[in-house]
UniProtKB/TrEMBL annotation:
Domain Metallo-beta-lactamase: 14-178
Enzyme kind, highest EC tier: hydrolase
UniProt signal peptide: none
Protein name per UniProt: hydroxyacylglutathione hydrolase
Highest taxon listed in the record's lineage: Bacteria
Matches recorded under Pfam families: HAGH_C, Lactamase_B
GO MF annotations, alphabetized: hydroxyacylglutathione hydrolase activity; metal ion binding
Assigned keywords, A-Z: Hydrolase, Metal-binding, Zinc
Annotated pathway: Secondary metabolite metabolism; methylglyoxal degradation; (R)-lactate from methylglyoxal: step 2/2
Family the entry assigns: Belongs to the metallo-beta-lactamase superfamily. Glyoxalase II family.
């Protein structure tokens, strides 16, 4: 079975790196290494060996542990083809559908998920029956989506969210690149005031809660773009919109300025 160990860094960026490993073979992959030293401490503690480093995208806060980890472990560094000259130490290109890691019945499969940048991969954990989880980098967060300031485009992000993330099963667990629960829930209360599910979810929220896609569909305003609560609020704020895409783009712009 594949085990997942989230590693949170207490910096203003609130980064998550993840160690994904087989508890049978001890083979491990690190997703988006931030603090190499703490990752090495955990891999020693758990007795696992890092074979590869998987970067969701090229931004420094997702790749800054690459070289130190590679030096220490000789791991292979993987990333998107568009990030060839941007990811430190990149060895191998990954593309849509590639399987990076298999353990028993489970595997980690690559999705090409542009929007936050055009070199953005997500990693999907699946077994033969279903998708168990997704490592979404800066594409989808708890109660929010990534910004598109540094090399991205909100239209592409809309397409990715709508055509990929919204097809995930409700039970799929979300492993994002940052813990942005707090700010995103505040924005959600501002932009989606009539959301009882969000209110009760918020009351029972635990620190670093891992959400399911089913819960995100009910609390994430970017998923709830077609609800009266969100649309009435946009009208109240004198925002004009027509279709679902334009609501999404308006939400993204308001979140940027918020
Ligand atoms: Fe990023």
């Amino acid at each position: 079975m594949i085990e997942i160990l989230p590693i949170f860094t207490h910096s203003p960026l609130r980064n998550f790196s993840y160690i994904v490993y087989s508890n049978r073979t001890g083979e491990a992959y690190v997703i988006d290494p931030f603090d190499a030293k703490s990752i090495l401490t955990y891999t020693k503690q758990f007795g696992v060996k890092i074979k590869g480093i998987l970067n969701t995208h090229e931004h420094g806060d997702h790749t800054q542990g690459n070289l130190e980890l590679k030096e220490e472990t000789k791991a292979i560094i993987y990333g998107h083809t568009n990030a060839k000259d941007k990811i430190p130490g990149l060895d191998q290109i990954l593309k849509e559908g590639d399987i990076v890691f298999s353990a028993e019945e489970e595997s980690l499969v690559v999705w090409d998920t542009p929007g936050h940048t055009f070199s953005h991969l997500s990693f999907v954990r699946k077994n033969p029956n279903t998708i168990l989880g997704i490592f979404s980098g800066d594409t989808l967060f708890n109660a929010g989506v990534g910004n598109c300031f540094r090399g991205g485009d909100p239209n592409a992000l809309y397409d990715t969210i709508q055509s990929r993330f919204e097809t995930l099963p409700d039970t799929c667990l979300l492993y994002p690149g940052h813990d942005y629960w707090d700010n995103n829930l505040k924005f959600s209360c501002h932009i989606d005031p009539e959301n009882e599910f969000r209110n009760s979810y918020k009351t029972s929220l635990k620190p670093f809660q891992v959400s399911e896609i089913g819960a995100e569909k009910k609390l994430n305003p970017f998923f709830r773009r077609n609800t009266d609560s969100v649309k009435d609020r946009l009208t109240e704020l004198k925002e004009s919109f027509s279709d679902e895409r334009s609501v999404f783009l308006t939400l993204r712009r308001l979140r940027d300025q918020w």
